[in-house]
Design a protein that fits this description.
The protein contains 11 helices and 11 strands.
């Protein structure tokens, strides 16, 4: 399995420079640039698979929307996959499977996310009343139904980025995992610092900027965004060490400094069957030779004694290390 090329938009902190772009917009920018850089004939693409975590209610199949770029025939098959934070990886392995099975020779795979533009939902009470009002036969009947609304019905519901069976976010699960595996706060802070320093070096020497498609900055669109804005090149270990835990405030080790960022961005790859690439004289960027996905027992994601007994431990003068977990 040959990976031919890849591009991405800048990674931008949610609510900042890319906040006006939808995930579909970002996906189109990445895929269009990918086609241009590789001089790929869109008619040769058999499949487009895209991943996203927070699906848009109004456009749940982001892959189909991206595939409607003028570079491709309108008949191009396209579908969306979701595996939480591994959604783009799932798109890549899905595309690989289709190529191995002989259902495709050339595929585009990737992922996009706009965590700025997560859908805000009505409460169930509001939804029920609005649906009933839409079915009313007269204005009087409609007004009578709308009069049933109460102040609490106007409170919006924002999607919690949490695992439903445990009710815990990724950060809370990371805290639990760190405890169970003896991963210290110091090691997390040093890893985070190294990550930022490497990102800064990769930006300065052009390794990272070479893979980025510059994006026009709204609303004037008079300048281009060509670098990631989440790289904290001025960070020090002392600064990271001084930050307080965000999720488990009593015994946690995950902070705003060593946690993953919440971003708006998109990326895309061109993938080919190895024989197709060889016949076209294309030197692959990399090869996918094997992959594996695995589930995690929910008890290691927060169901268990750690979160439930923190207050009791504190009152008893104990710490998490006193638990046999």
């Amino acid at each position: 399995m040959a990976i031919i090329a890849g591009v991405r938009t800048p990674f931008a902190r949610s609510g900042t420079v890319l906040k006006d772009y939808t995930a579909i917009d970002l996906g189109k920018l990445a895929v269009a640039e990918l086609v241009q850089r590789t001089a790929l004939d869109g008619a040769l693409v058999d499949l487009l698979v895209y991943g996203t975590v927070v699906q848009a209610v109004t456009a749940p199949n982001i892959a189909r929307e991206v595939s409607l770029l003028p570079h491709f025939p309108k008949t191009l098959q396209a579908y969306t996959v979701s595996r939480a934070c591994a959604s783009a990886n799932q798109a890549i392995t899905d595309a690989a499977d289709q190529i191995v099975l002989g259902h495709a020779h050339v595929a585009i795979a990737g992922g996009a996310e706009s965590l700025t533009q997560v859908p805000i939902l009505h409460s169930r009470g509001m939804s029920d009343v609005l649906v009933a009002a839409s079915k009313a036969k007269s204005l009087t009947q409609r007004l009578g139904i709308l009069a049933q609304l109460r102040p609490k019905d106007f409170i919006p519901i924002t999607p919690a980025i949490a695992e439903p069976s445990t009710g815990e976010s990724m950060g809370q699960s990371a805290d639990t995992m760190a405890k169970l595996n003896g991963i210290t706060r110091e090691s997390q802070d040093r890893f985070a610092l190294r990550s930022h320093m490497n990102a800064a070096a990769g930006t300065d020497d052009g390794r990272l900027t070479a893979e980025i498609v510059p994006v026009p900055a709204p609303p004037e669109f008079e300048r281009m965004i060509a670098t990631d804005n989440g790289v904290r090149r001025e960070s020090t270990f002392e600064q990271l060490s001084a930050l307080k835990p965000v999720f488990d405030r009593l015994y946690g080790t995950v902070t705003a400094g060593n946690a993953s960022g919440i971003n708006d961005a998109a990326a895309a790859l061109v993938m080919m069957e190895a024989g197709t690439a060889k016949a076209r004289g294309i030197q692959p960027l990399a090869r996918l030779v094997a992959y594996a996905h695995a589930g995690v027992d929910p008890k290691y994601m927060g169901i268990g004694p750690v979160p439930a007994t923190q207050l009791a431990l504190k009152k008893a003068g104990l710490t998490i290390k006193d638990l046999d977990v």
